[in-house]
Amino acid sequence: MLEILWIALAYVLGSAPWGLVIARTFCGIDPRENGSRNTGATNVARLCGFRWGVATLLCDVLKGAVPVWLAFRINASPVFVSMVALACVLGHVFSCFMKFRGGKAVATSIGIFLPLAFWQLLASSLLCTLVIWRSGFVSLGSLTLVTALPVALAVSGQWVWLPLALGVWAVVVWKHRENIVRLRSGTEKSWLKSKNKGETAGNAVQGDAAQNTSAQDAGRKDG
User: Using H for helix, E for strand and C for coil, what is the string for 67-95?
Assistant: First the structure.
């Protein structure tokens, strides 16, 4: 009975929409209505700033890591722990607090594997970071992470968590299906390009303001 209750609680904890809470509380913005309309860390960072994106990332990671870590104290069975982990991920994707809608589950997926396969997760995360750095696409890095993780588990002989990793891979790929279409068509938004465009736009606005000020000064002198 305790195991069933803990799986249900893991789903509820995974459903906590930290991106929505943080963006609304500290920025007065609803991420579901702005940017990519996603409550994940990437969209929160774009809308509210880097530090709030990091805060969202940490909260989403912890809501996966803590229930799984505690699940080991209840019952160390791989089947039970895997069910708790999957419940966290499904809670994030189908949040009971957001009419069964949610994020793309990458941060929470990282969280559930922290206590399960740290070194394999670390290797996959480093590869993910490299892909994002070289391509500028967060979505491509996320897909790389969940694809590399099952491979790392298989290569290192951690077969017990492989079914969970494949299940997470299926969920994350399904949630990124629109990103995959945009990546194939070359229309996916790049983190680097968005940043550069924002800086260019800001410089253009400042330039226009300077020109307007100069024109006004010249008008006063002529008058």
Answer: HHHHHHHHCCCHHHHHHHHHHHHHHHHCE
Dist CA 112 CA 63 (whole Å):
8
Identify any residues that bridge with 95 across adjacent strands, giving them in sequence order. Answer: 101
**CA 149 – CA 7 distance, rounded (Å):** 23
Question: Is a pLDDT exceeding 70 seen at residue 139?
Answer: yes
Q: Which residues pair with 101 in a beta bridge?
A: 95
Q: Beta-carbon neighbour count of residue 164 at 10 Å?
A: 26
Alpha-carbon distance of 33 to 37, in angstroms, equals: 5
* C-alpha to C-alpha distance for 22 and 30, rounded to whole angstroms: 9
Tell me how many degrees the CA angle 147-153-155 measures, rounded to the nearest 5: 100
State residue 195's pLDDT score.
45
Indicate the residue type of 72: F
Closest by CA to 175, choosing from 101, 123, 68, 116, is 101
How far apart, in whole angstroms, are the C-alpha atoms of residue 42 and residue 65? 20
Amino acid at 53: G
Instruction: State the pTM of this model.
Output: 0.81
Reported as a single tens digit per residue, the pLDDT across 54-111 is 999 999 999 999 999 999 999 999 999 999 999 999 999 999 999 999 889 999 999 9
Phi, psi of 95 (to 5 degrees): -70, 130
Q: Which amino acid is at 216?
A: Q
DSSP-derived letter for residue 101 is: B
